[in-house]
Amino acid sequence: MSPWLPILMAVPVLGAIVVALLPKGSDKLAKQVTLVVSLVVLALTIVMATQFRTGGPRFQFQAAYDWIPSFGVKFGVGVDGIALVLIALSAVLVPIVVLASWHDADGTQSADGTLITPKRSVKTYFSLLLVLEAMMIGVFAATDVFLFYVFFEAMLIPMYFMIGSYGGAQRSYAAVKFLLYSLFGGLLMLVAVIALYVVAGKGTFMYPELIGVIKDPATQKWLFGGFFIAFAIKAPLWPVHTWLPDAAAQAPAGAAVLLVGVLDKVGTFGMLRFCLELFPDAAKAFTTPIVVLAVISIIYGAIVAIGQTDMKRLIAYTSISHFGFIVMGVFAMSQVAQSGAALYMVNHGFSTGALFLAAGFLIARRGSPYIADYGGVQKVAPLLAGFFLIAGLAGLSLPGLSSFVSEFMVMIGTYSSTAFGAGALTVAAVISAVAVILAAVYILWMVQRTLHGPTAEPVKAFKDLNAREIVVLAPLVALIIGFGFFPKPLLDVINPAVTQTLVNVQVDNPAIAEKGAGQ
Amino acid sequence: MGETITFWVLAVVSVGAALGMVFNRRAVYSALMLGTVMLCLAVLYAVQDAPFLAAVQIIVYTGAVMMLFLFVLMLVGVDSSDSLVETLRGQRFWAAIAGLGFAVLIILAVGNAVFAKEAGLAGALGQAGYIRSLALLLFTKYVFAFEVTSALLITAALGAMVLAHRERLAPKQTQKDLARARFQGEHPSPLPGPGTYARSNAIDMPALLPDGTVAEKSVNRYIARYDVEQGHLPEDPKLADAIKHRAAIESSDEEPA
Amino acid sequence: MESPVEIVQHTTGGMIGASWLMIAFPLLGAAILLVLGRMTNRWGHLLGVAMSLASFVVAVLAFLELIGLPAEQRRQAVHLYEFIPGMVDMGLLVDPLSISFCLLITGVGSLIHIYSIGYMSHDPDRRRFFSYLNLFVSAMLLLVLADNYVGLFIGWEGVGLASYLLIGFWYFKPSAAVAAKKAFVVNRVGDLGLLVGMFVIITTFHTLTFSDLGKAIAANPPSGGAVTAIGLLLLLGACGKSAQLPLQSWLLDAMEGPTPVSALIHAATMVTAGVYLVVRSGAFFFPEGSPQALAVAIVGAATLLAGAIIGTAKDDIKKGLAGSTMSQIGYMMLGAAFGPVGYTFAIGHLITHGFFKADLFLGAGSVMHGMNDEVDMRKYGGLRKAMPITFATFFIGYLAIIGFPMLSGYFTKDGIIETAIEHNQVLGWLAVLGAGVTGFYMSRMVFMTFFGQKRWADDAHPHESPLVMTVPLMVLSLGALVLGAYLVLSNRLYEFLTPAVGAAEEAPHFAFTSVPGLATLALVAIGAAFAWYKYGRAEVPSVQPRGSFLTTFARRDLYGDALNESLFMRPGQWLTRIAVYFDNRGVDGLVNGLAAGIGGSSGRLRRLQTGFARTYALSILFGAALLAGALLLVGNI
Amino acid sequence: MTTHYLILSGLLFAIGAMGVLIRRNAIVVFMCVELMLNACNLAFVTFARQNGNLEGQIIAFFVMVVAAAEVVVGLAIIVTIFRTRRSASVDDANLLKY
Amino acid sequence: MNNAVAPTIEYGTLAPMLLVFGAAVIGVLVEAFAPHYVRKAIHVPLTLLSLAGAFALVIVQIVQGAVPTAPVAMGAVAVDGPALFIWGVILVLSFVCVLLINDEGHFVASAAAVPGSADEEEAEAAGVTHTEVYPLALFAVGGMLLFPASHDLLTMFVGLEVMSLPLYLLCGLARRRRLLSQEASMKYFLLGAFSSAFFLYGTAMIYGYAGTVSFTGINESLATGSLLDPLLLIGFALLGVGLLFKIGAAPFQAWKPDVYQGAPTPVTALMASGTLVAAVGALLRVFWVALGNLDWNWRPVIWAVAALTMLVGAIVAITQTDIKRMLAYSSIAHAGFLLIGVLATFDKAQENAKSLSAILFYLLVYSITTVGAFAVVTMVRDPGGEAGHLSRWAGLGKRSPLLAGVFAFFLLAFAGIPLTSGFFGKYAVFAAALSSGAERGDSLGGWMTGLVVLGVVASAVAAFFYVRVIVLMFFSEPAADGPSIAVPSMGTVAVIAVSLLVTVGVGLFPQPMLDLANQAASSLFVR
Description:
The complex is a heteropentamer. Chain A is mainly alpha-helical. In chain A, 71% of the residues lie in helices and 4% in strands. In chain A, helix 2 (27-50) packs antiparallel against helix 3, helix 10 crosses helix 13 (311-331) and helix 11 (253-278) packs antiparallel against helix 14 (335-366). By secondary structure, chain B is an all-alpha fold. In chain B, helix 1 runs antiparallel to helix 2, helix 2 runs antiparallel to helix 3 and helix 9 packs across helix 10. Classes of the chains: A mainly alpha, B mainly alpha, C mainly alpha, D mainly alpha, E mainly alpha. Chains in contact: A-C, A-E, B-C, B-D, B-E, C-D, C-E, D-E.
């Protein structure tokens, strides 16, 4: 019984309550409280992470309290390496998002004075943010399938309100679309969750106890399907991806970061943890079609991204492409690919986060998400342009930046996977590599049209980043570069969990490289 | 044998009356037809060893319930009759299909059920006799339901009161009150009738008051409006104005006190 | 063919052990300049030069340490840290091959840094320029020093990034922005090859480290198919970076960048990375006589001719030189196809080319500097008097490149040609032909720029550049003058490189009087004479004449861009449009259609609620009948 | 005979049900409902004899009581509506729809 | 000869119901004898105290643990665990609904006066109201208590009528929009009478088959006799019509939206909560107790009804423009979800406790949320009464964030979002259905799973219209002349607070309520 994770969840919830109960007119205080709370969570997370023993048992900081004994549900939490890094990702992103959204609810005006967003309740926004943080931590920490499901669905609500209340012109359409898509998937998963409990007959939802319990292949397939569709929608995988561009484009930049950076990871995280380990035979049986979908996502997302005229939509489509890589990595069933996929989840959080935030700063200055409304930003706001460029380069997985390592691992792990359907995997890896070119096209074309060229008239009034905005972007860029050259700390944490996953899936996929090459 | 004959006669009559009830335009006739059915059924009860029910059927149903129906019909307008044109598209067609289908189903079910010879009530009555046995059952086994039915009756009474009874909120006005009100009002005397002191005594010609002014209220406002619409205005401009004014007041729907 | 020396010494000490400093210095410089930004405006360029020079010093010291070692110990690996646990460790490999590159990169790089102080002195963003240059040097050193393909790839993309940034240095010019993007994207096509090549390598050999690769191949000889595949994929990568056919099109556009960039990146160093890759992998994946080696040779030969032909038709001095660069790298590729001897000459030509092409580019830059950034040679003429030093150094470079006897180019290019003819007559003689064309277009350039009547505009006041620019020119021309002879005669380079690339069955020896050599000289002379006939003797029209079909062909870069446009860009744009449409109408439309369908059925079902009690009663009766019917049916089954 | 009675009861019930669907006058509609209740009573009485116990008769008795109460409430409602709308047609009351 | 034995009535066991009826009768006496200006002052405490007292009596019975194992009152009423639970729920619901009824302005001043007439104005001016609503409501509650607890079909029929008649009347008593209210009343009445005729005919057929209307007797005769008797089947179908009509299952759902919309909102709340709970209880008793041996026969039919109900409710609700109509359709959809639970029977009767507990739990959480939602509806007012049209709700979140937030929370509970009570209700029912499907084996298991998936799809569709209201309230700009928010009475505040508390509390910690439901269900129905 370790109190770490419950505390980690309780702190933001308490913070949210405090923020919500602040008296009217204390907007500034609300922001400060939120920032402090999120920093406390970050600090706690860091301290907790340092206590994680890489050689130790798979799940650490475990705690389980009876919650609903009638249903066999426990408030069971614990983290393995993958969950740990994703919790850390959330803890890092939230304070950044808090800072980035400092003025989002205040009502923003573009440089020429036109109103972009009206004034809205600041307290609500920040308390929703903190509630969301608690749920993000909870969803990754849950070791009880039911608890996971609860967080999985409940997370939608704060995000729904953040998009719907604080988003752009089409916000309510986007918010509803987001909610219904996810809810639909979630409900199918609910059926599978119940069926899992019933079929397993163990009287518990605790996930470690459910591994290897479902033996019948047909049952496995159905249950797998229920979980997978939910995760595929969340991830989002082609062809159930169309909610993301709308949601991400309409959400305020900060919410978009959390949406794409963390919330969607729940989908791929779920695939890795639940789809594979609980239903190994089904996962193996479905590998080929899923990898095909993933490859379609990769290429399709990239091509459609090229054709976007709206910056945030473009970034959303790039994410669809990137999620394709993650899914491919998960289902390649090799150590390298899955480690890469897990790493990708983190790195994608940083890179897309930075990209969304930088784009958000651009949009906040101009009031338009359309690429065509920009041009020559580098001239007037070189710092902003620089950050935007670096974030973009991370988005195209430039070697030396963190996303390269994960993308490389995924592709190489997929190519070399000796799991069933290896032929398909090999082809998939090669096709997916084409995205390397497409990524360059979509990112650099956007960069060319926004940052380069003659400075457009409305752009001339741009101010460069202020201190707050620099503080928002700098840590992300530092992490992107740092993990680009030195991903080992993350990988050391992730690898044992992946190894255990593969053991549970009963895939014997030898390491592709001899350890310590070059020694 | 006697029962068979009775049955067939009454069956034909009751079905005919039932159909008559459904297809008769006039509600009163329908009610009478229903009464007929009830009477037939009363006889059939009696035939089937249920004399008590037969009596109750006639007293309560035909006697009380049907009377209530008739009262209400009187209230609503006894000579009102339904139009035979069906306004809901397909209603009759589908009603016929559903009704026939339903009847066929019941008849099929009943026809397929294999009944033993009627057990008859002799065994059930035992030594107690008919009425006593009924009472025994009613006051032991079904006593709770019996008691609860009282709630039903109270509800019914209460409901009728709520919907039909209007509580008097102010004391009833006496002759004295009315007279006092009249003399304290603007017009102790009756208003002048139309045509009084006018050159014509047509009802669309306003009266003139003793001082020669026009009494607008002496013309019915509908007539005034008709006159204005048709252009039948008197030649005297004073009178014409008065009629126009009257019509205008009418059309703006404000009746000055 | 003999494998290269497999023994790799691991070292942590000495200057070789500290060779990571080579990478670190310029990286630090770049970081400081970028992070501190405008604060460094006053001294930023000096820091950049200093960092580059520091790297050069480290390189020289490491080189000295290396040649102090016995030959069989000249492959020194430096382990840095675990990069991707269980797959790749980051390490450096200091061997003759990499150290040669290091010297070239840091040496020529430093000279160009110094030159840039002058060249960029008027640019308000000079500090940013130096940060990019430093970044480039750092990445390029990582590329050549990495002891594994992943490290190489990181450097490979790093130089691509630097190239992107520097081509687009004047980002406010739309042409520069477009050229930068194009360079990056085309390079990415090549990267795809390299990337997939790495997949195959690691899957086949379970390692990406050069030293382990040798062991793995020796322990478990792979099938020919896999190796051919790897070779072709790596070749694709090399083609991208080195602007070889069919991925050549970006290089000419890349001349949008400042001239020192063209000299450093697009002539002397980065574009030769492809050659480095082929030579580095040669022993593993390009065995002599293999199909992939032949492919390398064919690509090289085709490009050397194509580049030369493009060079003949360009009036833009930088584009002419860019065509020439393509062509010269074609030579190197051709050489790199033919085993250790070929490697030697390829690397030799690479080094000498680094000097004389940098010399030429910087000379051209100097001319532009004096001519208000005019690049059209038809607006030059008779400049030799106005800028004597520039003329002299340029002329030396010119002589070196056309292979004037005893100058650098003469030795290295001739070596390639002879090796090629020895292995493959057809390609070899094509190379000879290419040399002739080189003679023509280089002479044309010299005549048009420095001889004849002045044709420049009235407001141009050509003048000699400052010393900070001319001194590097002089140093480079000195290299162009003597380096070839030094490296080739007495097989110095060959023997130096042997520990890295393996030894040939028979050591090369340079013959001054071989048939191909003489033929080459003759053709060069004819070319030069023809150039004199057209441009030296005759008046050069200041407006471009229409020219024949062939001329147009060459001017349009052999229709490379047109081909790309019609084969890739337009279909790509259509594909994008279709995909976007499909996404909005197809995928999203399906979902929205489903939603609309539910909404529509809701609207219709709602109409069933007519408000008439009788309708409701009908539904109840129907329901009752259905319920009864269904139950009777179920009950009787 | 039981079958005959039951068929008669079924016919009356169905006719009543059809009447509810066809007639527009609320009072007549309600009469049709009464007819249906009567049909039920007939069935109860018949079954009472068939099964040989008195419960059916008791139930029929209860039904009469309940029907009486229902009639009071129903007619009160109908009269109220009539007073408001001057119409006892069930079709006229269709403000609540869709 | 004179062998009549005096009937035994277990007054202690029946005390809650008797208390309610007794209070109703006293209420009628108050109507008759007290002057009208003191009537309300007497009625309100009388009604509330009697309901609270009845609830206390239920609790006392539960605490004593002396739950009867046999039917009481000469076999007419079965006060078993589930019945006590349902009683408790109904009493709580009716208590809070009475608090709503108590609020000013819901009921007509003089029902006999023609709408818009001078009489009506006069009555309104005089400030009189129909205090008869209190005894009527008490009678209805009494019927609701009797309906699910009755142990023979006759008592059930009487209970049905006792429950319905006052409701028919109450529906017609709205103060505003009286035409609608009267129309609702008439429709409810005509259709209710129509459907109870079906119920009665079904009773007759069952009686013909079994010779008795006692559930025990019917069940026994099923066990011994041939199951194929068409009388039984048709009787059962017609009983089903009557019961399904009351819970509003398709195709018998048509009355619900009209009546819910037209009735005074507190009465709608009472119908949507109490009546539904009572009707489901009665449905369970008929299907599980009387016809328990026949369940392989009725399951396919109820399967279809459940599927149709969920889909119709969820789909048609999408295009509704009136908030009460929308909630009515939502109630239809929820009736469908409940039917899934009804289907979840097991081979061994003991295991049925699982499903029973799920249904009871669902009823509890759904009905309380419903009352809360209708309580909120009463507070959003236009000059002409409640602001029913959805467009009037636009931007409510800006004008009154707290109220809109609470309502949004209720809607999310309806949608079954985790961490609300509605989620656990749905979960419990789905879980019961799946485990019954799993136990029943392949074909049936597949059908049950299919039904649950259908339920899930319906939930997703349903979520759309709940969310649409949230969108309107929070994401739309308020109309310039938007509705006013009534200053709530203490009663309304209490109702909303209680509902919110239960919805949140059960959403976070459902276990205590589950324990209750489990305990109630463990004894199963008395057979």
